[in-house]
Each structure stands twice: as C-alpha cells, then as structure tokens.
C-alpha cells in the first residue's frame, strides 16, 4: 500500500484548497473565539480543540451531496476521509517537530500506522493530514505525510496558513481608482505648470541681467576711449 510523494500530490491536487480551507477556518476560530478565553491554554487542549474544529469543517465541506461520489467520511475509532478517485485515505493529526503523531498506542492504532490490512477499511495507502504550530502559537503549517510503522517516509507542505488577525485592506473599486488617477494627473499637471513658470522667470531674469551687463561694458569702453 505504498504511494510516492509525486503520485499522491498529483492525485490530491484538486482537494488541496478545500483541505486548506478547513484548516484556515479552524485556526481562525481558535485564534479569535477560543484562545482569548484562556491566559495560557495547555498544548494538549489546543491540539484536541484544533483537531475537532478541523474535523467539524471537513464534515461540513465533504459531507454534502456534491462530494458524495468522490469523498466518503468514515468514522470508526477515528475520523477518516476516503478519496475514492485517488484511492487514498486521509487521517487528521497534529505533528511534532519530528513529524511524529501522538495517539494512544493500541493494537489497532499500530496496525493502522503500519499500513496493515484492517477489517472495515479499504486496502488503500493511508496518508496523515497533519499540522505543526510554531513556538509563538501564531501560525500553523499543514502537511500531507506518508508513514509506515511510525517511520516518516515523506511529506510535503500544502501552504503556510496565516493568522486571521493580519489585517488586509480592501482594494479600491474601479471608480475610486479612476478618481485617484485623475487627481494624480491634475496634480502633476499643476506641478509642471509651476516649474515652467519658474524656468521662464529664470530665463527672463538671465536675459535681463545679460543685457544690463552688456550695457555696462559698453559704457565703460566709451569712458575709456574718452579719456
């Protein structure tokens, strides 16, 4: 039941944005609604809560009729997404810095992680859809990982998920952009006119100065000749 990283990424490409949307919304709820309640929530509570939020979002996204022919939600002792066209299985987990998952080491869990045949579960490659949180607790990174018997064989990052408290300013409408461009053009035109006036004055002043200087030289020559 092995699959390469290249094949897995290609088969799951159309689902990446949907999966990331689940994590974005779950992370946003944690940051804005739940975390502010506590002065310092413990890591276990945070991990469990985020995992439940992500699973809730996955149910909401993939549990609709639109995806029934492609995605099946299987809930036995754990929450699984079965991607039918890809013949792949996804399980949601938190990852530590060494890409290890933390769960109770039951016999069934060990069989699952070892990619062994299990009753009630298709014989498809099992991929871990996991996330890591930075030390400041301000952002998460989402990965798709393949492991066997708790050995991390490969993984790839989907995207760095930014926290929701980063402010994004709305872009201006076309009418606002046109008005802004018109104001800029008018201002540039006024500046050009002012510069032209200054240059003309300088030229006039320069010409007048040269004329006066020439008259002065002429008078001086006439005086010298008279002497």
Note down, in words, how this protein is organized.
It contains five helices and six strands; from the N terminus they run αααβββαβββα. The protein has two domains: 5-161, no CATH class; 173-227. The longest helix has 53 residues, at 174-226. Strands 1-2-3-4-5-6 form a six-stranded mixed β-sheet. It is of the alpha+beta class and 227 residues long. The model is unreliable at 163-174 (pLDDT under 50).
Question: Would you kindly provide a brief summary of this structure?
Answer:
With 227 residues, the protein is of the alpha+beta class.
Strand residue content: 15-25%
Sheet with the most strands: spatial strand order: 1-2-3-4-5-6
- SSE order, one letter for each helix or strand: HHHEEEHEEEH
Number of helices: 5
Taking the sheet with the most strands, its summary is: 6 strands, mixed
Instruction: Report how far apart the termini are.
Output: 119 Å
Question: What's the SSE blueprint?
Answer:
Layout: H1 5-12, H2 16-34, H3 43-62, E1 71-75, E2 79-83, E3 88-94, H4 107-113, E4 126-133, E5 140-148, E6 151-161, H5 174-226
Helix pairs in contact: 2-3
């Amino acid at each position: 039941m092995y699959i390469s990283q290249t094949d897995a990424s290609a088969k799951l490409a159309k689902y990446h944005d949907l999966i990331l949307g689940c994590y974005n919304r779950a992370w946003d709820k944690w940051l804005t609604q739940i975390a502010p309640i506590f002065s310092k929530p413990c890591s276990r509570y945070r991990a469990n809560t985020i995992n439940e939020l992500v699973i809730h979002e996955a149910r909401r996204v993939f549990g609709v009729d639109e995806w029934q022919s492609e995605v099946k939600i299987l809930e036995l002792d754990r929450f699984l997404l079965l991607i039918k066209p890809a013949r792949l299985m996804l399980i949601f987990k938190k990852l530590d810095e060494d890409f290890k998952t933390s769960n109770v080491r039951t016999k069934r869990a060990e069989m699952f992680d070892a990619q062994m045949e299990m009753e009630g579960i298709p014989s498809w490659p099992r991929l871990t859809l996991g996330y890591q949180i930075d030390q400041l607790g301000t952002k998460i990174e989402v990965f798709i990982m393949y492991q066997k018997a708790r050995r991390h064989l490969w993984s790839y990052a989907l995207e760095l998920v930014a926290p929701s408290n980063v402010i994004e300013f709305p872009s201006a409408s076309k009418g606002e952009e046109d008005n802004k461009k018109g104001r800029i053009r008018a201002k540039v035109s006024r500046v050009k006119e002012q510069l032209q006036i200054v240059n003309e004055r300088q030229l006039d002043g320069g010409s007048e100065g040269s004329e006066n200087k020439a008259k002065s030289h002429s008078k001086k020559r006439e005086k010298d000749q008279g002497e």
